[in-house]
Each structure stands twice: as C-alpha cells, then as structure tokens.
C-alpha cells in the first residue's frame, strides 16, 4: 500500500502533496478547537498501536501479505479529523525511520491512507449506524464494513495515482490492486472488529467521547 519513490511523476507527487498538506492543516485547525483532555491520551495510544500493528504482516493468497492500516479504527474511536492527524504522524514516522513509503510519495501515501481511507471509513460507519441502529452488533457490523471499505478506497486511490503517473494503464493496475486488497480488507475488517469489541467490553466510555 505504501508507494515508494520513483513510482509517481512530479505532477501527481505535487498534486497529492498539496491536497494532503491542506487536509492535514485543516485537521490540525479543527482538532485544536475540539480536542479535550480525554482525547489526547487516546490519540497517543491509537498512534502507538497503529504504528506497531502495521509492522505485523498477515499472509494473503498468492504469496502476498497485508497489514493493518488503522484508518477505520481512528475514524470510529476518535473521529475523522483526529484520525487524519494520527495516520499522518504514523506514515511520516514510518517513512523517516523505516523508509516504508517514499519521502517524495509521502503526500500520496497520506492522501490515500491518512485522509481518503479515514473519511471513507467514517462515512460508512455513520451510514451503517443510521441503517442498523446503535446496538453492539450493529456497531461491530459497521466496523467490519468500514475497515474493508477503508482498504479498498486507499488501494483505488493508489491505483489512480499510479495510472496517472504512467506506470500502468488503469485497466491493468486498478483491478490488480483492488483484487488483492479486497482480501487484505477482510483482515482489516476483522482486526477493526476485534479492537472495537475489546473497547466496548472494557472501556465503553471511549465510544461516548465526542468525535473530532
């Protein structure tokens, strides 16, 4: 999912960088107005958990592997704007420390996994709650769908960026990215459900916090 340097042309790098910088700036501005003393430690714990969890890969068909993105967890537990900040911090640290994703491609990676995936998951979770209600199983079903959708949104955006950069025709890279990430998204959905279920069982008050 992390796009390395050399795969995107300068136009795509610049466009994604500008959009991501604007999105992150808006997130910081909005979060600064709404954040409370209870959200700060939660943001830190989520960032640490997602940073560590992204190091663990799980096998996928055809010898490929996937790992948690965490965008849906952020969207569900603390809200989309705070989620953008958390995911951006994780992706920046990974790029600088582990070279996981290129520095020039950092704007694209933040756009895909830190903005589009977070907001995609948030709106899906909200839509599921509106249709299914506010019960435990409704929330867990919404969490599963939101986790899967977040991976698909991020992979579709990456495919569009690769095609726009001339790396491959979208008719080739699009189906290839979506096919393998449809399987990875199942893992994302399961992990999201497990974490949300654990939070509901041990710290249900977290789910009552205002989303940022």
Give structural attributes.
mainly alpha, 212 residues, 7 helices, two-stranded antiparallel sheet, single chain
Topology (elements, then pairings):
Elements: H1 10-34, H2 39-53, E1 57-59, E2 65-67, H3 71-77, H4 80-98, H5 106-132, H6 136-164, H7 170-202
Antiparallel strand pairs: 1-2
Helix pairs in contact: 1-4, 1-5, 2-4, 3-4, 3-5, 3-6, 4-5, 5-6, 6-7
Keywords: Cell membrane, Membrane, Transmembrane, Transmembrane helix, Transport
Protein name: Energy-coupling factor ABC transporter permease
InterPro entries: CbiM/NikMN (IPR002751)
Question: What would your notes on this structure say?
Answer:
With 212 residues, the chain is mainly α. It has helices spanning 10-34, 39-53, 71-77, 80-98, 106-132, 136-164, 170-202, and strands at 57-59, 65-67. A two-stranded antiparallel ribbon has the order 1-2. A hairpin with a 5-residue loop joins strand 1 and strand 2 (65-67). Helix 1 (10-34) crosses helix 5 (106-132). The protein is globular, with a radius of gyration of 16 Å. The mean pLDDT is 90.
């Amino acid at each position: 999912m992390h796009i390395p340097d050399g795969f995107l042309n300068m136009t795509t790098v610049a466009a994604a960088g500008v959009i991501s910088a604007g999105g992150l700036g808006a997130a910081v501005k909005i979060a600064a107005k709404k954040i409370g003393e209870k959200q700060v430690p939660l943001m830190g714990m989520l960032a640490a958990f997602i940073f560590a969890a992204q190091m663990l890969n799980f096998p996928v068909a055809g010898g490929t592997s996937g790992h948690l993105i965490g965008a849906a967890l952020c969207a569900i537990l603390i809200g989309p704007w705070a989620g953008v900040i958390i995911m951006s911090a994780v992706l920046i640290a990974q790029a600088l420390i582990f070279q996981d994703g290129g520095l020039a491609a950092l704007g694209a990676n933040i756009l895909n996994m830190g903005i589009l995936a977070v907001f995609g998951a948030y709106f899906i979770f909200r839509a599921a709650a509106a249709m299914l209600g506010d019960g435990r199983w409704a929330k867990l079903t919404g969490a599963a769908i939101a986790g899967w959708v977040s991976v698909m949104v991020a992979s579709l955006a990456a495919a569009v960026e690769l095609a726009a950069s001339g790396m491959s025709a979208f008719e080739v890279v699009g189906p290839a990215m979506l096919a393998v990430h449809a399987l990875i998204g199942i893992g994302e959905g399961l992990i999201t459900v497990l974490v949300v279920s654990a939070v509901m069982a041990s710290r249900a008050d977290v789910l009552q916090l205002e989303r940022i």
